[in-house]
Give the backbone structure.
Amino acid sequence: MIELLSYEFMQRAIVAGVFVAILCALVGMFVVLRGISFMGAGIAHSAFGGVALGIFLGVNPIMVAFLFSICIALLIGV
């Protein structure tokens, strides 16, 4: 198992993993303290409404979901 550390790509992966872990911990603490931990889930669920609206109107559902999500985020105040 220790021989995996002799590969350069594994060394880079471990360094990147440690960096991402530290960064996610800091960002996660900020998100929880601001009370917006479920904001991403709410905006993602609003995208489902955008997809349904796009299909109903017969236009590109991805673009409608994108625009719908941005509008919802602006209304929420993110």
